[in-house]
Every structure is written in structure tokens, then in C-alpha cells.
Fold each of these.
Amino acid sequence: MSDKQHANRPLADFIVHNLDSAVVFPKPYRGGKTAVSWQTEELQHVSIASKDGRIVWVGPAAELGQNVTIEGSARFYNGEGLLAVPGFVDSHTHLVYAGDRSDEFEMRVQGRSYLDILAAGGGILRTTNAVRGLSEEELFVKSAQRLEQVMKTGVTTVEIKTGYGLDLENEMKMLRVIDQLKAAYPVRIVATFMGAHAVPADRRADPDAFVDEICNVWIPEVARSGLAEFNDVFTENKAFSVAQSRRILEAGLKHGLKAKIHADEVNVLGGVDLAAELGAVSADHLLMTGDEGIKKLAGSGVIPTVLPGTSTYLMESHHAAARKMIDAGLPLAIASDHNPGSCQFLGANIIQSLAMLQLKMSASEALIAGTLHAAHALALGNEIGAIEVGRRTDLALFALNSFRQIGYQVGQNSLFELIIDGTPVFGEQ
Ligand code: NIG
Ligand code: FE
């Protein structure tokens, strides 16, 4: 080998060596109006080299030495018998909460609707009471237990929303809990402020005054704290109108908070149009979104995010029109929406299964939607979400022969190791 070639070889300080297989996406979606591809490729006998937490080389294990300069102090992880996929990205969760709503679950099984329970003071408002009653430390402990379960399903990045404080003090408390989780766990956490999750009982007489307060007082304070990156709103009957949602999202954008929206979950009010108009990073739920909404999303750059766990848990008569969205060329993402009321499915692998069973997605589509496209839904689409040179070394290692077994083995979990930023999390070997 010439000196020049040698000089161009990347340095590596961490290597996942001798993997049985690794899944790559040959033509990853690059954001905006670029092309969407659902193609996956399962490479055999692979090594992945990393430097400073970023992938520098992926290729045949036998060719590692001739392509990579391995630092003397480099760590090796033995990948024999393992499959590597990109770490899952759960781009929509309400993971920080307290309390129990198992009675509402039974009520819904017997036929009461989700919005009726909310209007009667249950639902989100009930969780709000539970959250307000806990100290920051207590809320941290409850949320940390859940986060550990999420990580065990192969998730390396998780978004977490506020929205069970519904007053400034308790919304800030939730943001601080999210921040403590960030400090305590290696998983990448993205914080979303969702003060506009529901109108609390004592503000029902004048919801517009509540919206004013969110826009003029809460959002500036949240932005000053630096504790949130996104701003989300529940655009729905009995929650926030499109006009109110517009004010809330615009106020966030003015203060540097990127926009997300809960749109078309129960009724089509115009949340999708608003997302396209404001350049929201993602529009989520979309259970009721039809051809018109899909047309609006096409080419908008908004990442449509569907939540098959929620439509299953709410026993809806249908699920989001994922197939139509894929056929229309949209960079569809999937996420868990884990929360205490409308979805108790937790983590990534069960959502992979539900995407296949309920949304009729292929295993390749489910994998790309739950990794790369979900990363785009967090504005991290060029940083994480795929096994590709230049991206963070975030991997989920499974004791499986093929990624097609992840969704197939419903409710089972063959995760062996999680690697985040080039560091094994569980230390299995
Ligand atoms: O995404 N739709 C609004 N928010 C959550 C449910 C929250 C709850 O019921 O506690 C959702 O489904
Ligand atoms: Fe949600």
C-alpha cells in the first residue's frame, strides 16, 4: 500500500468486530424534498469502526486492518453471533409522568371514548394532578424506571414531552426531570415543551387567556431556560383549535423552539395544513389524515409520524394510512407515543411489530421509519439513524439472524447490547 493510501486511512478508537450482519440503508433520505428510499441491505461478516463516537468505516471484517488505522488503545467489541441495526429513535413519547389510569383503560374497553374521559376531568388532567403532587426527585425515579425499559428495546434516542404540569411551575419541573434523565443516562434525549397539551379545569372559563399565558409568559421562560428544543401542541376538539395552535407554535418559533404538532388524531381540524404552513419538523398521529392531507404533506418537508401503538391501544376501527403515505413518497416515521392514557406500549420492538401488523409496512419500511426517518422527525436526520460513515456510532445489537425477526417476534426482545456514541451501554460480552 502506498504512503498516500495509508495516510488516508481513518483512525479508529472503537471497533465492533466480526458482526454476523449489519443493516445499512444504501440511499438514505437526506431531508427536505430529497428522495425517499425504503431500501435496506443486510451486509454479512462486518466490522464497524468508530472514532470519537462517530462511524469512520463499515465493511467486511476481513478488510478492517487494511482500511483502518487502529489506535493502540482502541477498544474492541466482539460482534460474533450478533446483528447490528441503527439504534432505534423514539421520536414521540410522554415518558415523564406519574399515576395510574388502568380504570380508564377498562372504561375504554367497555366503550367510553378517550375525549369523553378527558372532558369529564379524566385523562391528561388526571395525570396532571398526579404529576403536580410529586417532587422533582419522585418524578425522576418513576420516569427513570421507564427510560431503562425503553433502552432495553434498542432505543438510543428518545424524545420526551412535558404537558402534565399545565402550569409554569410544574411544566418547568417536568423539563428539569428530563434534564436530569439526560445527565443520568447515556441515551440521547430530546426535550419537547408541550404546555398546550390540555386546558386545565381552572382555566376552562377562558381558554384564550390560557393560550395567551403560554405564548407570552411560559414560552419565553422555557426558551430562556434552554431546557427544551421543540414546542408541541394538541390540535383537537376539547384541546386547542387551529387558531390557538398557530399562536402557540409561532410564539415558540419566535423564541427558537422548533415546531411539532399532534394533528388529526381524532378529528381533521387543519393541523396538517398548519404544520406545512409553519414548516413544523413533524406532524404526528395523522390517524384521520386522508388524501388531501397526504397531498399537503408531500414535498412540505414535514416528517409525517404515525403511532400504531396508540391506534391499537385506543381500539380504533382503523389505523393511519401508512401505505398511502409511502406510495405518495413521504418520509414516513413511526414512534411509540408512550403515555399513561392512550398508549402503554413501550419501546421500539413492539412498535416495529405493530407497524407491520396494523400499518401493513414491510420489515424494511418499519426499520427505516423507526430509525432514519424518526431521526429526521427530531431534526437529527443527518447525525443519527443509520449505519453510515459520518454519523454517530449508535447501534442496537440483537442476537438474531436477520432484522426481519425483530418485528416478527412480537413481544419478544432479543436485544443483546446497545452502543451509544461508540460506547457499549450494558457491557454484555
Ligand atoms: O399523544 N393526544 C394527546 N396526548 C397523548 C395522550 C396523553 C394522555 O392521554 O395522557 C397522545 O395520545
Ligand atoms: Fe402524543
Amino acid sequence: MKETQQAASVYQNVCRQFDKAADLIDFDPEIRKILGKTQNEVIVNFPVIMDDGHIEILTGYRVQHNNVLGPYKGGLRYHPAVDIDEVRALATWMTWKSAIVNIPFGGAKGGIQVDPSKYSHSELQRITRRFTFALGCNIGPEFDIPAPDVNTNAQIMAWILDTYVSTQPPHSRQANVHIVTGKPVESGGSLGRDKATGQGVVYTIEQWANDRKFDLNGATYFVQGFGNVGSWTSILLKPYGAKLVAVEDICGAYEDPNGIDPDELNEYFKEKHTLDGFKNLKKIDHEKFLNTKADIFVPAALENQVTSETASLLNVRVVAEGANGPTDLDGDEILQQKKIDMIPDIICNAGGVIVSYFEWLQNKRSEFWDLEEVDRKLHRLIVGGYERVRAAAKEYKTDWRTAAYIVALARLEKVYKERGIFP
Ligand code: NAD
């Protein structure tokens, strides 16, 4: 999966991680060629009428990396930094993720290069509907199933669902509600999907703590990003007796060494749309934030946060990657030198796609599972993946990220060998 680009890119990181794992297990060179490329890349430029009547042309992406294990699956991101390179990387990570946790999905990702904070509610609705229309039959409930990611949520999924089914023949509309996951529960969503990624992060941290015989009661943690993944991870770690000591979002970084109540912070954020001004929070700079002395760091924002420039600042026992791609290869190396443990993204944040799979299954079977069932099944699948990664790290005497890739690649290689290449 060699990349020839000069500038470092997120996708280049994926390629280098892939090569490292593939070299170590002597991966089949022919299958390496297949997985080293994305299968389909769709770029759409589409017009949207703004509230004042003028038209903007927006650019959206959907990249489908691989579907040998099942339909393409992955989120949609609305962010100014969305481009083909980032979407390729995110799509590829989705393939590995589903393979590790043994769910029958392939990998895809998409998004729109847009700053959603600049648009009204009704403009965002029209942007979403027009993007869905532009994607047309490039997505589908048995073909490619989007979900929420950065700056998208259950409301946006509901608009996609409504637009997609409205463009289907009347008799097949109800049979298509599994076109997206992460929908509102009343519109066919699953209980537990909203918190699923954070819940999965916490289940993997719990496994790590068991392995290390480390008591989470009284442990300290800090979180970058207080959106879906960051806020739920923070909230769900609290019952273990762990203490949140710092948090950062797009507006800045804050600390309270005496402990921040994540439930109260979340309520405050929902009301004020900022972390600023909450109780005893003190604003700190980004370097001080990364240098926070704590047991656990959860990056839950964007890519390339732990790098050659920043990794040496970290002062923790473990990094649990809620975000996709928060650590680059140099960052990984520094963390290894510092003997900081790593729960890599492609297992740590797999709770989201696991519960998306449960939502998809419930829609297909016209079932509605209770939260206890969702959480129990999520726990089983994510812990299974975690254990496979741990076993591969031991067997190949390698770091956990490479081990996670090895688990994914071994499964994909087996399937390709069983099925062969058409014709
Ligand atoms: P979100 O939009 O709900 O939250 C993103 C958070 O990151 C916000 O708090 C935002 O303020 C913060 N942020 C953005 N830029 C920042 C910056 N430069 N510095 C600090 N904070 C910044 O998104 P999310 O769904 O929570 O996704 C977060 C990460 O988790 C992404 O990498 C995403 O791909 C990954 N992820 C999400 C899911 C899911 O189910 N939502 C599943 C797996 C992985």
C-alpha cells in the first residue's frame, strides 16, 4: 500500500500502518494490491438554495474502500477539512474495524467540505437532502449505509432517511429504513446507538485496566473533544470512580484538577453551547492540556493530534483513541519509547459501528431490542476484538496498532483466499 505523495497525509499514515502490519505477517502480495486501493470514490458537486435565495455549490464525497465482508459502512462528516485524502483514510479504517470485531460490513466514509456552523437549520436540512439526492444509488441499505460522524447527528440521519425513501417507489419505502444508522429512536434508531462509541471506548479501557491490574476507582482522565464520543466517554467513565481533570474542544482547553462532573458539564454545554464559564474550569493552553498529568488520555476530536511535536508532552499510562487517526506514526513511536500503552482507534472506537450493525439488524427484522440487550451484545463483540488484538500483539511481539491491523488483515486475507477473484 505504498503511497508516492510528497506531503504527509492522513491516508499516507494508513498506508504506512498497513505496510508495517502486512510486512510482519508476510501478507499475500496479490491481496495486498486489492486492499491497498479504495474500490470506489464518488465526488459530487451539488447546488443548494440558501435562505436568502442565492445558490451555493458544495462538494461531497463518498469513498468505498472494500466490501468483501459485507455492505460498505461508515459515517458522514461535515467539516471544512473534509477532502478526498481524509475520506479515503477514514473509509479504509472502517474496513479494518469491522473485520476486527467480526461484523459483516465493509468500509466506507463520506462527508461534505463545509463548516456547518455557518448555516441555518433549514440550510443544513437542504444541504443534507441535496447531498443524499446527489449520491443517489451510490448508497443503499444493502449496499452502503451511512452513519453520524463529526458534526453530523441523529437529525441529519433522519433527513437522509426521509430523502432516500422518498425517492424510492412507494411499495419499497418501508423496506429501506436501514439506509442509515444512528437515526433517532422514534424513526427506527437503536437504543444505545447515541452512546455506543463512548460505551465501547469505556469497555476497552475497562479491559485494559483488568489486564494491567489497574484500579479505575480514583483514576484520572482527560478528554479532547466533547462531542458525541468525548462527552459519552467522559460520562460513562464516571461510575467507575474515575475523575475527569481536563477537557478541550474547538474553542479551547480547560482544567479542574479537583475534578469536573461530566454530567453537569454536558448539561451546561447543551444549554450554553460552550464549555467556557462552567463552574471552576480554568482555561489553559493546548500544550498544558496535552501535558496534563493523568492516567488516561482520550483523544475524541480529529486526526493527527499526537505527533512528533506533541507526543512527548503526554504524561499518562494509556491513550484510548476515541477519535479516528489521532496518532500518527511518529506519535506512536514516541509513545512506545515512553512506555505509554495504546488502545488503537480501530478497536477502541468500534462500539459505534457495532451498534450501527445492531440497528441495521433490528430494522431488517422489524425488531426493537432493549438497552440491556444492546449493551450486552456490544460488550461481547468489542471485548472479543480487544482480546484478538491482545493475542496478536503477544504472538507477533508487536505494538497494539500493528496487532489490530494484523487481526483485520488476517481475516480479510482468509476471505479473499476462500472466495477467489472473479472471473
Ligand atoms: P462531534 O462532532 O460530535 O464532536 C467533535 C468534537 O471535537 C467537538 O467537541 C469539537 O468541538 C471538537 N473539536 C473539533 N476540532 C477540534 C480541535 N481542533 N481541537 C479540539 N477539539 C476539537 O464528533 P464525534 O462523532 O464525537 O467524533 C469525534 C471523533 O470520533 C472523530 O474522529 C470521529 O471520526 C470518531 N468516531 C466517531 C464515531 C461516532 O459514532 N460518532 C464513531 C467512531 C469514531
Amino acid sequence: MAVIAVVGANWGDEGKGKMVDYLAENSHFVVRFQGGSNAGHTVINDYGKFALHLLPSGVFYPGVVNVIGPGVALDIRAFAEELDSLVQRSVPMPKIAVSDRAQVLMPYHKMFDEYEEERLGARQFGSTKSGIAPFYSDKYAKIGLQVSELYDKDLLRARVAHALEIKNVLLEHLYHKPALKVDDLVEELSVQAEIIKPYVTDTTRLFADALKAGKSILLEGQLGSLRDPDHGIYPYSTSSSTIAGYAAIGAGLPPYAITEVLAVTKAYSSCVGAGPFVTELTGEEGEELRRRGGDAGEYGAKTGRPRRVGWFDAVATRYGCAVQGATALAVTNLDVLGYLENIPVCVAYEIDGRITSDFPATALVRKAKPVFKTMPGWKSDISSARSLGDLPQEARDYIEMVERETGVKVKWVSVGPRREQTFRT
Ligand code: GDP
């Protein structure tokens, strides 16, 4: 039995989707435990290239049960569209279970996300406008709606009416938009209830049985450590926890059930969205790295926005691994660095004239300047390597550097976006 949390050590887009798709072959369950359809997990396999937003990346294996856990922001329309698009592209209908405790992303959550970014103008946070921040605000303000509540007509109407009392004040008076009607929303949610019905189940119970039977579970994180609301670069964070510690909660498993925390990091840094990014490269150097990472989709899978890129940030990654409690690392996109004579790596920050190797809280990250050391490059194409022994010495040294700097053993190396371009060290 293995319960592995596959989580991001950085800002997201580390290649978690690829790693989950690879590892899912030997798993019984793949679970999304947080976030919603704002994810963009790229998977390239025999069926083609896919950007999964809400569905777990185990959907390409007919034997895997793909679970939407209680911690997820469930956008039912997005779920249905994504499922349809897979089937239309000849992927066999996957097995799916949706927690009856998951909460429903309401149509107005997306509206509020959009209106708020509009209101903020230049101060906006770069939301994907998938309704995530309004969803989690409502969940913790206890005006959210659980999936199970969709199937009790009176309860549904009462919950919607209760929420709209607040929502309509904001719509009309803060955003100057038309109010919403209880009847319209109840009707839409009743349609959505039918769409999701075949998949709804008590997934907490399902996992209790699975653990007893020694089944293997992959917990698929979205975004990474530095986007966590508690540990990340708040307020440039997401609205649900991206940390492996939360995986147990958001999936509905005991914390001690997790046997491995596999943190995923790119061999360089990339980030979509706003916030301090210490090793960011601008100008020609940045353009080149983004272009070289072209196959690595250096344009956000969800947003199409160009990703910000920079050299490997050992300070941020060490911290990212520590808050994840990483027991193993996967280093992806190593192939992308093959064009460089020398590779700068950020090993410390200079903040107000002081050198530190600790990743500080956001107010200080804003002031940090990178301190680089340089590693020799390998100047070759390593995308067909299938073992450590196939790599040039310089690339092996680079992996050792990642291990030394983070204090975590590199277990997997990825040298291309395809499933088979992955090997164990
Ligand atoms: P996720 O959100 O963590 O799943 O990551 P994304 O899918 O948003 O971004 C990772 C990008 O890198 C995707 O375009 C992947 O196809 C690509 N990718 C993953 N691993 C590798 C790799 O080892 N080499 C290259 N060149 N691309 C990779």
C-alpha cells in the first residue's frame, strides 16, 4: 500500500500532472483534494495532449478511480465539459467518484471573481477568474453549498436564498450589477445535480475501505508551496491549501496514512501570475529560457498567459520542500537547460545588505535580490535519457546540487513532457 501526495515545491506548473499521469499506472485511486478548475495540469500520452483542469490526472487509466475530494471547489459545468472532451477524444470513460461533502462552485462565484478583478483594476491579483477565491470565502463564511444539499429541494432553496441575501447586496451596491433570483439559481442547480448524480458518493467511506484493503492512492496537488495561503507569498496566493498536510484533510484520509510526500520542482523556476519572484529573468535571457521551455508550455495551461521564468531558486525550493514535508523530489524539465554553457543557480538572498539562505515572509521577499553561483552546463540534448547513467556528468552534478540544496533525495527525473521521458534515479 502506498499513499503518495504529489505536490508542487514552487509556484505551481512544476509538472505535477505529468508525474501523476506517470505514477497512476500503479495506483488504485487518484484524488484531487483542493482547488478547482483553475488548475492546468498538462498530460501528454498515447491519447494526445491534454490540459486537465478539474479532473484528476488518473483519468487515462480505465482501472483507476478518480476522486474529487471534499476539499475541492466543484464547478459542475466545467467538470461535465472536461469529461465530455476526453470522451470525444477517444479516452475511455474514466471511473469517477465525487464526494458528497465537496462544495459546489456557484455560477455567481465566477461572476464575483470577474467583478472584483474589474474593480481592483491595476491592483488585481491575476486571478484565473474561475471563482476560486469567492468560493473558499463563502465556504468558510458558511454560505457554501455541499453536494449532498443539492438533493433536498427545500434545503437547497433555503440555502440559496440565504446566500443571495448577502450576494445581491454586493452585486447591486458594490459592483452595480443586476441582482440574482432564487428561482433561476435553484433551477440551474437542479440541472447540475442531475449531471453529477451518477458519481456522487461518500468518498470518505470509500477511502476507509481502500486503506483497509491496502489499496494505493495518489493525492494530486494543485499549484505549489509558494501559493499556499499560510506558507506562500500571501496575498499572491491561492485560496486553498496547496500543502501535503492538507491533502489528508481535503481528501478525507488520516494524516498518518500518507506514506510519501513527492514534491515536484522544475530544474529552473517558472510562475504564472503576480507576486514577488526573486530569480525572474527579464529581457533576452528570459525570452530565450521561455522559448526553450516552449514545449514545456511556458504559457499557462489554464490562462495562456506567458509564464514568468527564472533560474532555479534553491532558497525558495528548500523552503517549498520543507513546508511540504517532502520525502522525495521529482525534478522536471531538466532537458530545457541543455542549451546553456553555464547555469546560474540562486543559493541565497540578499535582503537589506544581509545574506540569508532562509525564505522569508512576503514583505521581505519583495526586497530580496538573488545571490547566484554557476554550474557548468551539459550543452546537449538529454531528452532520450532513460537512466541517470544516460546523463552527462554535468547534468548528474546538477541533480546532486538540487539534492544538496534542498536536503531531499531526487527520486524521479523528467527529461521531456511525454510519459516515457521519466526515470527513477
Ligand atoms: P502542473 O500544473 O504542475 O501539472 O504543470 P503544468 O502542466 O502546468 O506545466 C508543466 C509543463 O511542463 C507542461 O507543459 C508539461 O507538458 C511540461 N513538462 C513536464 N515535464 C517536462 C519535462 O521534463 N520536460 C519538458 N520539456 N517539459 C515538461
Amino acid sequence: MYCVNATMMEEIVSCYKLTEPVYIARPRMPSLGDYEGYLEQIWATRWLTNDGQFHIQFEKRLKEYLGVEHLNLFVNGTVALLVALHALRINSGEVITTPFTFPATAHVLYWNRIQPVFCDIDEKTFNIDPSKIERLIRPDTKAILGVHVYGTPCDVEAIETIAQKHGLHVIYDAAHAFGVRIADKSILEYGDICALSFHATKLFTTIEGGALVTRSEVERKRIQFLRNFGIADEETVIGPGINGKMNEFQACFGLLQLDMVDQEIEERRQLVGLYRQRLSKIPGIFFLADIPKVRHNYAYFPILVDEKIYGFSRDELCEVLRGCNVFPRKYFYPLCSDYSCYSALPSARPANLPVAQRVASQVLCLPLYGNLDSAVVETICDIIAKIHAATS
Ligand code: T4K
């Protein structure tokens, strides 16, 4: 249990408490009138789901926006990931992955009867560390499942080299990586399959939603069947599929979001610039830098709090911010490897994951979304600076 000095807490809260709660994420809402326009058409046609006209339109426009050829929409990112493994026929053995991620990444392995093998992360990107992957490869290893955490690309070239050398599949959980590019190439062009999430908390949202991006039309078609119970036609089921379909309401929301997403990313970029400018002056607060040639999407703004230098722990800082009506999140603490369902695995031992353990104990994702007022960002930075000043 952590406990903030009560007088300091009172002083900071009385000075900085915001009148309205500020959350880590907020969806950018399209105009209600525009959405109603779509709803009227849905009402008129009574076509609600199963490859309706808006689903078709959205899939087409999304492919163009992302610069990819083979894409299937999904009801959410988790089902998309489940189907990705099934599509690659990975349903036993081991898959090497990162512990520093949302539970969905590890859980989809479990649901496909695959044992996750946790690999430590790189302290410069917080993504799976390619230099530590090879020692984890065993005869039963089927694939590497990387996550582009916070939208920062994994070292895709190094992972590709390892995968080719050992004959492994590469799957990317690109839940955070909407619109990210390396030079002129979409991040979704790397690996055998990439899964996106369009959840309400993401910078691009279809309420719930997701997609799989594959390398060929044959794979895309196979995934289309898997997404729809394996149904080929009214009298033919060609395999054990699942229901992963996106509905028309989600697709319409997505069509409207596509018109706004560039503005969303640009506004986030500016807010991240402000955070960085203000926080770089505070000892013990660290953040990730942009990577040259990468078009970042600024999906999240994680900071690391080094208690020894800053004077306060991450948990204490989080408590003060909450007291001020600011609700950051400790994404991703605890590590997946520390969940009771995985902690007994040999690869889950904390000693094997020193970087991930440290990052998870220090990380705090600060509020970031396009219509976040820059004055609120200033206040959050003021609070962080004030705490350090009070402790030093
Ligand atoms: N892989 C990775 C790496 C992921 O991060 C995720 C999901 C997935 C896979 C799975 O994709 P999906 O199956 O979800 O498509 C949220 C999201 O639910 C989850 O999608 C996301 N990652 C994760 C990082 O964040 P929670 O449980 O932290 O969300 P919640 O409900 O606490 O919301 C956070 C804040 O967002 C709230 O305090 C307020 C704001 N919010 C939330 C919702 C739902 C809104 O303003 N409006 C809303 O509608 O998981």
C-alpha cells in the first residue's frame, strides 16, 4: 500500500483539481446528424449485419487509407487475433510473445491451446526484444507474436530474419498501430498477419471493432469464411469457423471516423509535443522518442517514473493525479506473465524479464486524445512538476 503525504496531497489537490474528470482516452465523436443519416438508410433497408453495403464501403475505404490490399473487418480485435492463429493453423505448441501487453494477446494463445513463451522487451521501444528471442526457440515453437505497443513499431526486420531462419510464422498484434508507417510502407505489411483493434478507446474507433491484414487474396478469402462460421454457401460449411462479423452500425461509425482520423493524429502529435517539452525538464520522468522514418500515430503517451530520481513512485504520482480528477492508466501493469493463469510458466519468471518488470513498475499512460485541451495537459505537467519540487 502506498500513501501520499496528506498535507502535500491536500495542497496539490486544492491548487490543481480539475472540475471535470479527465480520462486516459476519449473517442472522437462524429457529428450526430451524419450518423443519423446512415441510421436512416439502415432503417430503410433493414440490413443490419452480414456484409451489408456499409461494411463493403468501409472495408474498401479502410484498405485505401491504410495502404493494404488484403483486409477483413472483425467485430473486435480479440476475435481477429483468435482467427489469425486459426488461419495459420497454429493450434498447439508454443508461441513467443511479449508480457508487456493487454491481456488479449496472451489469452488468444491460451484459447487456441498454445503455450505463451514470454520474452523480455527492449527498453528503447517497450516491444519484444529480438536479441532475446532465439534462446527461447524450441522444436515446438510455432510463431512469434509481436505487439507494436503504443503504436511504436517492433524491430520488424530483425524479427523477420529470426523467423525465416527458424521457419516460424510472424503475427503482429497491431491493436495500437492504426496508420503507422515505416518510411512509405504500412506497418501492417510486415509479418504473416496483423490484427487491428478499433475499440472505443483507440484513436480510430468503430465502437468495438477490428481487422486482419493478410498477405494474399487466398488467405483473405479463407479468413472471410472463418469469420462467418465457415459458411461457403447456404448448403456448404467448409470448416469450423466462428462469428467474428462487424455489423452495419460499426461500419458506418468507421466510415465517419475515416474522415477525422488524420486530424485526430495531428492533434495528438501536438499534445505529445507539449507533454515532451514540459516533462523533459522534470528529473526522473522519461518518455519514448519518435523513431526516424516512422510515421507515428501517438496512440498513447506513456511515461516512466524513476522513483529514485523523481522522489515519488509511479503509484504515488497516479494517486495524486486521481485526486486531481485526472485518470491515467498503468498500461501494462501487471505484466501478462504475472497473471495467476500464466505465472507458473518457466518463461514467466520475473528474473527472465528484467526490462519488462522495470518498465511495468514505472509506466504511467497520461491522458491523450485529439480534443484534449492543451490547458489540461499543462495542468497535468504542473502537477507532475510540483510533486517533484515538493520532494526535492
Ligand atoms: N491487443 C492489445 C495490445 C490491446 O491493447 C487490445 C485492447 C487488444 C489486443 C484487444 O482489442 P479489442 O478486442 O478490445 O478490440 C481498454 C480497451 O477496452 C481495450 O480495447 C484496449 N486494448 C485497452 C488498452 O484499453 P480498459 O479495460 O482499460 O478500458 P476502460 O473501459 O477502462 O476505458 C479506459 C478509459 O477510456 C475510461 O476510463 C474512459 C475512456 N472511455 C472508455 C470507453 C469504453 C471512453 O471515454 N469511452 C468509452 O466508450 O481496456
